[in-house]
Amino acid sequence: MEFLDTLAKHPALFIGSCTVLGLLVGSFLNVVIYRLPVMMDAALRDECAELAVADSAAATTAPAGAPELSPDIAPELPLEDLAPPADANDGTDAPGSVARPAFNLVVPRSACPTCKAPITAAQNIPVISWLALGGKCASCQAPISVRYPAIELLSGIASGVVAWHFGFGLVAVAALVFTWALIALTFIDLDTFLLPDQITLPLVWAGLLLSIWHPTWAPGTTPVTPVDSILGAAAGYLSLWTVFWLFLLIRKKEGMGYGDFKLFAAFGAWFGPVMLLPIILFASLVGSVVGIWLIFRRRKGVDTHIPFGPYLAAAGWLALFFGPAIRSLLFPTIPG
């Protein structure tokens, strides 16, 4: 308690502590960004293996005279093609899968992808270790991507900005978690075009629960009542869901993924329905500019897939800071 009292009385110490914490969290976010999609893929492969085994068992016990499923409806795939890769298994022995070492956010230990040498604690100090090693593996001298320290630095700086803007209190804690989640979602979407439910759905629930304490939120934030939070979550999801189906009906192809709906719903839960319009307008504007740049600079086709999540995340983070100002500027007659 004395430490918390000290942080509350010394803003500079609070900002510095949050910056250091952000650097450490950024190191963990690197793990999440890489491993969570692999874990999702392994879980999907296990589920496919279970379904294949169930279909095979059903076919062998079918009653005499029952119609056979055509290969187009129930293709028979070798079970080894459905099993998770050797480095991506949660340790369970699903039917049809091969038992493999556990693979999650905790185990196995981080290691060099080239020589498989374990990364020691001294080699895992955010940013500093990368600089000390010259951006290379200590064992095999293979280059280490600059993205790892960049994400750590981004997390640290963003965390410091959050602490400086909101000051000591519940709002800063909530804003830090919000920021870290958006960083993870941004880079996962850039890598895989996925916005995992494991992150987006807790964000929705966090926004809904935080609305209970809206009267105690500090000045300069965007407090919403429980009613506004619920309406915002519903409006956020349904709006993009509607756009998705209209686009599908008109263009006969998908324009975005369901993860975008859930992330937008999270923003509705955090900021209320009024902030959804400026968030989507900003995200669409920046996404359009980047898309046009890709078409002309890199000579990409018009149908080039561009992840929308990073632009939504950037717009949502700006709403966290400038929500009240944007709201009063665009909607001065709506009570805040």
Number of helices: 11
Number of strands: 0
pLDDT averaged residue by residue: 82
Shape: globular
Uncertain parts = 66-97
The CA-CA distance between the termini, in Å, is 34 Å
* Succession of helices and strands: HHHHHHHHHHH
Question: What structural class results from the helix and strand content?
Answer: mainly alpha
Name the helicity range.
Answer: 55-70%
Sheet of most strands: none
In terms of DSSP E residues, the strand content is under 5%
Cα-atom Rg, whole angstroms?
23 Å
How would you characterize this protein structure?
The relative contact order is 0.09. The chain has 11 helices and no strands. The chain is mainly alpha-helical and 336 residues long.
Brief sketch in words of this structure:
Helix content is 62%, strand content 0%. With 336 residues, it is mostly helical. The model is unreliable at 66-97 (pLDDT under 50).
List keywords for this structure.
single chain, 336 residues, mainly alpha, globular
List the helices and strands and how they pair.
Blueprint: H1 2-9, H2 11-60, H3 79-82, H4 128-132, H5 147-166, H6 170-192, H7 197-210, H8 226-251, H9 258-271, H10 276-297, H11 309-330
Helix pairs in contact: 1-2, 2-5, 2-6, 5-6, 6-7, 6-11, 7-8, 7-9, 8-9, 9-11, 10-11
